[in-house]
Design brief:
By secondary structure, the chain is α+β, with helices and mostly antiparallel strands. The chain has 34 helices and 33 strands. Strands 5, 6, 7, 8, 9, 10 and 11 form a 7-stranded mixed sheet that branches. Strands 22, 23, 24, 25, 26, 27 and 28 form a 7-stranded mixed sheet that branches. Strand 19 and strand 20 form a beta hairpin. Helix 3 packs across helix 14. The radius of gyration is 52 Å and the shape is elongated.
Length: 964
């Protein structure tokens, strides 16, 4: 068919060249019969020649094959199929070749080609490196792109920079992995530390991605488009490396010149005919729109063949009769064939540049475009050529600049830029970043332009830029020191936080010797770098560093090595954190935990001691009821009662430290309490000069005034003891705001606080003393001159008010105590004092007395019976519930101990409340009212009495509850 077409075109051109010669007409009429005979002779001769050719022995050709559907694969019958085998079979049929496929992996095929075990390897990407190893066909057969695929559930990989630390599956030895512009080269260019899983075929690549053995995989786009739907993979936006696919031959094989020459000839012929098998195979395997085109009708081909044969016969007769015309015709044809060959070469180059190429007329109309520009723009060639101007594709913001370049190029030749970027809008309105190379066609007003879509590259560059900006923002914004150093111990870069920490000026940064100027002990840097070089990183490494002024501070360092492409260490990058504040907070926290533990112990001691004092007080009260004041034993009993009171005061201080005792809380102006207590103290200690400074707008604090008075009296007494020869006492109140960093070690909330400072000019304290002053029983006074509970009690009271108390002191320079109490929005109410005369109050009701201590049961029973009450007793919570259930109609009051084994006071109260919601209960405890006792009172318990209690106090408390 192709030979007929070429003969037809050849004869047509000859006919046109001689139609101007009128005498030819007469020759045609004269020699028409002989022409017919000649035509029959040619047909017979042609048939005979074809028969002889067909009888020759076919030439055996070995072709390398590997699985790469749809380009090449083995069909269900075990035969080679796909674009390349179908194309080779068509050429083999014309050349009388017998094709034998040698199957294997892709890398095996290249090895066989190199060792001349095969004659042809199809579908080989052309690179300069491979051109040194193999021979290639001239014209590219396909242009292949590489696309990256990910698992269907993967949402992380959207750009090249997302491949950092990822595993990528690829075809072993493929150009899209190893070649120029391949993924390995791209990864190095972007400094991406990714690994590659090299497999034998593209199917294995997709399996690795589907099974999550690889984070992503790369294949040529043709394979991916055809086969991705058979796996649980999806296309990513990453596409790169357009490359020409050609036939490859052994470099020095004897058959190579012949085979490459014949294939070059056939590929050239097939590409020139848009209805050839080449374009039909493209449509069949890759492009459906091409596949749907109508094949050249067979009847029209036969007719053209007949017409061509007639014209050939006619021209042969003319040539035979007119030698001179024949010679002239040959000259014309030779010139035209040269021109046609030149045009064909130009068209081939134009179509296969690998970039979108177009020719622009002087009026900006596109007179010629290639298929790549069709794909880029979204328009067909028919819609573009001679119809659209290139300006229609330029976005508005770039239009004036492009127009200026075009004008300058036509006026001033080479002064206008020939290479630049602009933004291109395709048919769908998608904006693409384009790199253009443009130049004038000599001797014309036309220009030729080559366009490359660099949108993925621009996106990658933008991602890299944003990544660098984020890194720089982190670098500069970090409150910790961020640094980069060389291997030999010099700073390359450091953020402002680091410069401020070490006291370094940026201009002096490169002059710093890290080992001697930064490390407190230079040997520590040697040890540290050995750790990093061995592991590649170090985290939370504790070290002592120093500033430029020589002060040493604790720090932690996290560092990683910086390596070049050959894995050589070129420097270090890391973060230094000043741990001074953290160490201080840890010390404070440990101290708070210690104080809490001591408080628990002190509370337990005070509770048990109060139970003993209760028994002593009770028996003393009973004895005093039976004798008059004239009895010689009366004063001794009163002395015992006074000792009990002193013991109770001692346990009250212990409980103040342990439990706080913040019970009678009310909105208070601390100025009033501080002024009252300081005035009282000043009247008794005239050798102390008191200086006061009160805030006029002091915020309100919700405190127990009595306990606050105790705190300040204890502080004044401590100051007096530190100034035995007299001195000055400074008292100041003010409003402050405490932030989260300040309050964190004290376990209180940040916000508004009322601050009271008490400063003396006494002997001061060393550090060892200062850190222990709030411990109970710790005192610097000689034995017998102090209990060591005053400051411990103050500490406990402030802590249970959700406040802070701390101290600052230096030996010989006095001491300052700072108290912070949470501010309140409540309004201070006027206080009305009332005094009830203390006396014994009798009664006749029935009382249930509950306590696990037998001595408390005995003495309290006698005390209450002495007051006229009927008494029932229970030694446990369970017994109390049982007795009350049986006698609830006669029991008027329950005195309930809070701390008991088994069923405690709180649960016992709740169970009694379930039996009778109107029950009257007085809670009794050796602990203070704070904590568990206050929670029971909040649930409805009527009142509380602190052990030890006197007979008068007990009688008043009972009547107080009974008369409500």
């Amino acid at each position: 068919m192709n030979k007929v077409r070429h003969g037809y075109r050849f004869m047509q051109k000859i006919k046109l060249s001689i139609t101007s010669q009128q005498h030819i007409q007469s020759i045609k009429r004269k020699f028409l019969p002989p022409l017919i005979l000649a035509f029959v002779f040619i047909l017979i001769t042609n048939t005979a020649f074809s028969t002889v050719a067909a009888g020759q022995e076919p030439l055996s050709i070995k072709v390398g094959a590997y699985a790469n559907h749809p380009k090449i694969y083995m069909n269900e019958n075990g035969k080679g199929s796909g674009f390349w085998p179908d194309l080779i079979e068509d050429i083999a049929k014309k050349e009388n070749w017998k094709i034998e496929y040698i199957w294997g992996t892709w890398s095996e095929g290249l090895d066989r080609l190199k060792s001349e075990e095969i004659d042809i390897m199809p579908d080989v990407a052309f690179t300069e490196k491979r051109n040194e190893l193999y021979a290639f066909s001239e014209a590219p057969v396909l242009i292949s792109w590489t696309r990256m695929y990910v698992n269907e559930e993967n949402t992380e990989i959207q750009s090249i920079t997302d491949l950092k630390n990822k595993k990528i599956a690829a075809l072993k030895g493929s150009v899209n992995l190893e070649g120029s512009g391949g993924l390995r080269e791209i990864a190095r260019g972007f400094n991406l530390d990714c690994t590659f899983l090299e497999l034998d075929d593209y199917t294995e690549v997709f399996k690795a991605v589907e099974e999550n053995r690889a984070d992503a995989g790369i294949t040529n786009r043709n394979f991916g488009n055809k086969n991705a739907k058979n796996f649980k993979v999806k296309r990513s936006p990453i596409i790169f490396q357009p490359i020409n696919m050609k036939f490859a031959f052994p470099k020095d094989a004897e058959s190579t010149p012949y085979l490459s020459g014949r294939i070059n000839y056939h590929i050239k012929q097939l590409k020139q005919d848009e209805n050839s098998i080449y374009y039909r195979l493209l449509g069949k395997y890759f492009e459906s729109e091409i596949a749907e085109k109508e094949v050249f009708p067979k009847w029209l081909g036969a007719a053209l063949k007949t017409i061509a044969a007639l014209f050939a016969f006619f021209i042969l007769v003319i040539i035979a009769t007119r030698i001179q015309v024949k010679r002239k015709t040959k000259e014309i044809l030779a010139g035209r064939e040269v021109l046609q060959a030149s045009e064909e070469r130009y068209r081939s180059i134009f179509e296969n540049t690998g970039t979108a190429t177009l020719i622009l007329e002087e009026d900006k109309t596109m007179s010629m475009v290639n298929s790549e520009f069709e794909r880029l723009s979204g328009y067909s060639r028919e819609e573009l050529e001679g119809r659209k101007k290139w300006t229609e594709f330029v976005v508005e913001e770039d239009f004036e600049r492009m127009k200026e370049y075009a004008t300058e190029r036509r006026k001033n030749g080479g002064k206008a830029p020939t290479e630049y970027d602009f933004r291109f809008a395709d048919r769908e309105g998608n904006i693409k970043d384009i790199f253009i190379r443009v130049g004038m066609i000599p001797g014309t007003g036309k220009s030729v332009a080559s366009l490359m879509d660099i949108t993925p590259l621009k996106r990658a560059e933008e991602s890299l830029r944003q990544s660098e900006e984020k890194y720089r923002e982190f670098f500069e914004a970090s409150k910790d020191t961020v640094y980069i150093t060389s291997v030999d111990g010099k700073f390359i870069d450091m953020n402002d936080a680091g410069l401020n920490l070490f006291g370094i000026k940026r201009d002096d940064l490169d002059k710093i010797n890290i080992a001697s100027d930064i490390y407190a002990d230079p040997a520590d840097r040697v040890t540290f770098t050995e750790i990093i070089d061995r592991a590649g990183f170090a985290t939370s490494h504790e070290i002592n560093l120093k500033r430029m002024d020589g002060t040493v501070f604790p720090a932690t360092i996290a560092t990683v090595t910086i390596k070049d492409a050959d894995e050589n260490v070129t420097g270090y990058q890391g973060i230094i954190r000043d741990e001074t504040e953290r160490r201080r907070l840890e010390t404070q926290f440990q101290k708070a935990q210690k104080m809490e533990a001591i408080g628990t112990l002190a509370g337990g001691i005070a509770h048990d001691f109060n139970n003993l004092l209760t028994a002593i007080q009770g028996n003393t009260s009973l004895m005093l009821m039976q004798i008059d004041s004239g009895n010689p034993e009366y004063e001794r009993l009163k002395s015992i009662e006074q000792c009990v009171k002193s013991g109770a005061d001692l346990t009250k201080q212990l409980l103040g430290f342990a439990r706080g005792g913040a019970y009678d809380v009310k909105p208070t102006n601390l100025n009033d309490i501080v002024r009252k207590t300081s005035d009282m103290f000043g009247r008794t200690k005239k050798e102390i000069v008191i200086h006061s400074k009160y805030s006029d707008e002091l915020w309100t604090a919700e405190v127990d005034p009595g306990q606050m008075e105790q705190v300040f009296i204890n502080l004044y007494v401590n100051a007096w003891q530190a100034m035995p020869a007299g001195g000055d006492l400074y008292i100041e109140t003010e409003n402050v705001n405490l932030d989260e960093n300040y309050v964190r070690p004290y376990e209180v909330d940040p916000g508004k606080y009322v601050k009271v400072s008490v400063t003396d000019t006494g002997v001061g304290m060393d550090e060892a003393t200062r850190i222990r002053i709030f411990e109970p029983f710790f005192t610097t006074r000689e034995m017998g001159r102090g209990t060591g509970l005053g400051l411990a009690s103050a500490y406990g009271i402030i802590k249970r008010h959700r406040g802070i108390i701390n101290t600052y002191s230096e030996k010989g320079h006095g001491t300052t105590f700072n108290i912070y109490l949470p501010a309140s929005e409540s309004v201070v109410r006027a206080q009305v004092a009332g005094i009830r005369e203390k006396q014994l109050l009798a009664g006749h009701e029935t009382i249930l007395l509950v306590d696990d201590e037998e001595m408390i049961i005995d003495v309290a029973t006698q005390m209450l019976q002495g007051l006229g009450y009927k008494i029932l007793t229970a030694g446990s919570g369970e017994e109390a519930i049982e007795i009350y259930r049986k006698n609830q109609d006669t029991i008027d009051l329950v005195i309930l101990d809070m701390i008991m084994p088994g069923l405690g006071g709180g649960e016992t109260y709740d169970r009694l409340k379930d039996i009778n919601s109107d029950i009257r209960v007085v809670l009794s405890s050796g602990y203070s009212i704070n904590g568990q006792a206050s929670r029971i009172l909040e649930r409805g318990c009527n009142s509380f009495i602190q052990k030890p209690f006197s007979m008068k106090a007990l009688s008043m408390k009972v009547r107080e509850v009974m008369e409500k």
